[in-house]
Design goal:
Layout (H helix, E strand, L loop, with lengths): L2 E5 L3 H12 L3 E6 L2 H9 L3 E4 L14 E4 L11 H9 L7 E7 L10 E2 L10 H14 L5 E6 L1 E3 L6 H5 L4 E2 L6 E2 L1 E3 H14 L4 E4 L6 E2 L2 H9 L7 E2 L1 H7 L2 H5 L6 E2 L2 H7 L8 H8 L5
Parallel strand pairs: 1-2, 1-4, 2-3, 4-5, 5-7, 6-15, 7-12, 8-11, 9-14
Antiparallel strand pairs: 10-13
Helix pairs in contact: 1-6, 7-11
Length: 284
Amino acid sequence: MTRAVIIGCGDTGQRVARLAADRGWDATGIVRSAESADRLARSAIAAQAVDLDQPDPDLPDADLLFHFAPPPRTGDDDPRMAAVLAAYAHRPPRRLIYIGTSGVYGDCGGDWVTEDRPLNPITDRARRRAAAERRLADWPGAVVILRAPGIYGPGRLPIERVRRGEPVLDDADSPWTNRIHIDDLAAAAIAAAERGPDRAVYNAADGQPTPMGAAYRAIARRLGLPDPPTISRAEAERDWSEMRLSFLRESRRLDNHRLRDDLGLVLRYPDLNSGLDASLPARG
């Protein structure tokens, strides 16, 4: 039986675990705490609590290793990835699938971006992800990388911001933004495990980028609310947090042809409208 180990078994990992079970694989989710392991167990997902920040983490054998755990929030490296690779150095899995971020491309001036574009991360969080990719480049086993943008789905939408009427950036000043529905990301991870060639990299996006405010307007309309007010970039620079402003400084449009063509992946939610219809609570 194929042994699938999912490191960082959160929302996406749980979906992967269920898809793995559908295929008859033996899936184990790795989480940080015993409480999280108990929650997975109550969802009928085998789980093990492992702290990747401790020396020599005790990780189970794997045929397929899904690495979804984020790096630490500080520094310019990913020591958690280093710890995982060290743990499997003498018992490498058949394939390692890593979900990273499209942030490793940095600002592309709104250009369409394929997987061949050189990495140019401009934020610390993206530099940590780029460092994880560099570690994987030296890994002797088979590796497939999924570079994901914003992940959305049920419970992963800015509904309260929309209800409060928080302003969004005017489209004229807005960068392009990209997204992937969480169910499609899980399906992409399974497809990468089953069919992705060694060292393949995929933009795991729906291929339908929009200005930043489009999602907020679409959510508002589905909730029967007025469109959010808009502000200029200068007003945003004055009023928004540094974290939120960092997303204004990068603009790119992710090309997903390789994901669909090479893996034969048919997205269940190929655009924002179809994904929101499946993600928002029903009105009534």
